[in-house]
Amino acid sequence: MDKLDDMASVSEFDPIAGNIPATKVEITVSCRNLLDKDTFSKSDPLCVLYIQGVETKQWREVRKENRFNQSSPDEHSILASALKRDSPLSVALQCVSDPALCVHQDFLGQTFCTLGEIVGSPSSRLEKPLSGIPGKKCGTVILSAEELGNCRDYATMQFCANKLDKKDFFGKSDPFMVFYRSNEDGTFTICHKTEVVKNTLNPVWQAFAIPVRALCNGDYDRTIKVEVYDWDRDGSHDFIGEFTTSYRELARGQSQFNVYEVINQKKKIKKKKYSNSGTVTLLSFTVESEYTFLDYIKGGTQINFTVAIDFTASNGNPSQSTSLHYMNPYQMNAYAMALKAVGEIIQDYDSDKMFPALGFGAKLPPDGRVSHEFPLNGNTENPYCNGIEGILEAYHQSLKTVQLYGPTNFAPVVNHVARYAAAVQDGSQYFILLIITDGVISDMAQTKEAIVSAAKLPMSIIIVGVGQAEFDAMVELDGDDIRISSRGKLAERDIVQFVPFRDYMDRTGNHVLSMARLAKDVLAEIPEQFISYMKTRGIKPNPSPPPYTPPSHTLHTQI
């Protein structure tokens, strides 16, 4: 039986936290008796967690986990998120045709509940039938929840094994290990699976890093169970044996205390002379703190925000009400609303509130030269605007002086910000470029090349698409499903986040809620992108400066 799992990360960055406090929880999903969709092996289920929006009632995907060859009972997927107790949840399962790419193929069923239902069930464990396929029993799903501890350490460890049992008829074994954390109700939840080492009884597995809260949720004496398997192609992996340990024991590092006998209880009962099914040895163990976005900000890292606005003719004549750049005296246009929603959050992390603001795709006075990188304030020496209001003022002024033209080229503004980011790669500064555009990109190859180069630098790119155009190219640049590449070279990190503005137009006309949702979704990936840069460069945050204390005054008394 194959039992696989990965930990889902929980973002520390919630730019528009609501009034009702949200709880960070791990939701464990156990599937039993799933439908088999694969002909020669078990199903390859993809588990997706959705949460329903409060004001829009739309379902939004918050976490996805794929598990290969699992239709048997007790298969787990851990999904971590920040949720409110009354948050409506949906868990959907699909069989995937290509597990590596998570390409959807067959729907396996779904169920609906709230976090409160899970927490309120005995031992916070809720069992519900899967449904959604007429005339079919889709199996059951068991949902349990545990509040996440505040432990932010990461443990990195490496193991080897010696003289494991031989399980394959024509060869040795293909061993891998599965780690389980014990739960408060006595059950176990998968928290890590090693890679498979082929054709050996003495494997050395690669070192792996795991959050300490995944192993024990901050309880250093909580039991950790480790099972050793021989991998089989059809998913019916052979059980070799198991052992137990704890975080406190592992933290001793390489020693005689961390050599474990792998025991197969069935063999032990049957064979009088049974000793063990091999041994597993801890080779190394180190612990580092998991730093958050706010740790770096508190330590002095500066966020540099740049905005680039699309001035191509496809936006329409700004003097006409049909134009996306139309200046309605009673209501902001889509460009202004997107800029204000995102910019007002980011500006809080910028100490001087001075932001470069660029335009692209326009003819400039006096000679009609087409530019894809011009300052909105008209000052090439100093393109900085004072706060978001300063950018809006420069944007309105530019609409009166430049002629909308084309084409829609992104590469110049991406390279513009990249030049500044390339000069400061020590973690003291991070650059965010907001591109607001209406149309299909004209320089796709050049933009891809610019993004692949920029992925090595301390910068992120947010693209907000306004209007009703098709934004397929923007989705490709986003790189969430397939990492962007140029000339056969993959981007080192995913640094692009794209959202279509039309998805955030509130039907009730409540633009405050719409813009709050836009800001939250647009900025959702920034902390992860920021942390990924710092981690790959080995940059740690500086200590926070001590809080200011006013000088003490001595009270003088006269006798």
Give a structural overview.
By secondary structure, the chain is of the alpha+beta class. Helix content is 19%, strand content 33%. It has twelve helices and 28 strands. The protein has helices spanning 115-120, 212-216, 247-250, 265-270, 293-298, 334-346, 387-401, 411-422, 444-454, 472-478, 511-523, 526-536; strands spanning 23-32, 45-52, 59-66, 75-83, 88-98, 103-114, 125-129, 140-147, 153-162, 175-182, 188-193, 208-211, 223-230, 238-246, 259-261, 279-289, 302-310, 354-360, 362-364, 369-371, 374-375, 384-386, 403-404, 429-437, 459-465, 485-486, 489-490, 496-500. The strands form seven sheets. Strands 17, 18, 21, 22, 24, 25 and 28 form a seven-stranded mixed sheet that branches. It has a four-stranded antiparallel sheet with strand order 4-1-8-7. Strand 5 (88-98) and strand 6 form a beta hairpin. Helix 6 (334-346) crosses helix 11 and helix 8 runs parallel beside helix 9 (444-454). The longest helix is centred in the last third of the chain and has 15 residues, at 387-401. The radius of gyration is 28 Å and the shape is elongated.
